[in-house]
Amino acid sequence: MKREGKEGEPQWQRVTQEFAPVCDASSRVLILGTAPSRKSRESGFYYGHPQNRFWKMLSAITAEELPRTIEQKKALLLRNHIALHDVIHSCEIIGSSDSSIRNVEPADLEGIFAVTGPIPVLCNGGTAYRLYGRFQEKKLGIGAVQMPSTSPANAAWSLERLITEWGRVLLPDIGQGK
Q1: Pairwise CA distance, residues 48 & 4, whole Å
Q2: How far is Cα 13 from Cα 90, in angstroms, rounded to an integer?
């Protein structure tokens, strides 16, 4: 549902999570984003913006070829024991700006942990981390680690720096890769 404003004012849109979680019983870590960006919704899967460095970072850490299709992305995640979802089920947002998120309905993460058991949680960026802490951590009893955002808006972090930091934290959980 779009809220039409006056000409030149930001346009709020209600966004609902359309992607199922990616996980199975062998998942050893859960990565949580905030909510799907406009480009992700258009592409039909997580981190669909061509400038987002998530898939490049993950393929470098796991020493795998960069996945192009949704099926290749799911396979890379599951092969490497990584679960993936967002912390938000629905929210109001302007464009794809995490800083504009309001009126959050949190995702039901209990279904993921019913499949995986309790596993470490890594949040892709500060907004995902704050929202997880606000809506999920106490209920689930599982803490989270804030990771640097792979978003192109996080220009302070180069791809190489993201690979190093994510690899340092992620590799002990998945037990493979570079």
Answers
A1: 26
A2: 10
Rounded to an integer, what distance in angstroms lies between the CA atom of residue 175 and that of residue 50? 28
Does 53 score more than 80 pLDDT? yes
142 class by beta-carbon count within 10 Å (0-12 exposed, 13-18 middle, 19+ buried):
middle
- Residue pair 90/15 in contact (Cβ under 8 Å)? The answer is yes
Task: Give the 3-state secondary structure of residue 10.
Answer: coil
Is a pLDDT exceeding 70 seen at residue 103?
Answer: yes
**150, 53 in Cβ contact below 8 A?**
yes
* DSSP 8-state symbol, 100: G
Determine which helix (DSSP H) or strand (DSSP E) holds 146, and give its type and residue range.
strand 144-147
Mean pLDDT for the chain overall = 91
Q: Does the pLDDT at position 96 exceed 80?
A: no
- Looking at residue 4, its pLDDT comes to 46
Domains, the chain, with CATH or none: 21-86+108-171 (3.40.470.10)
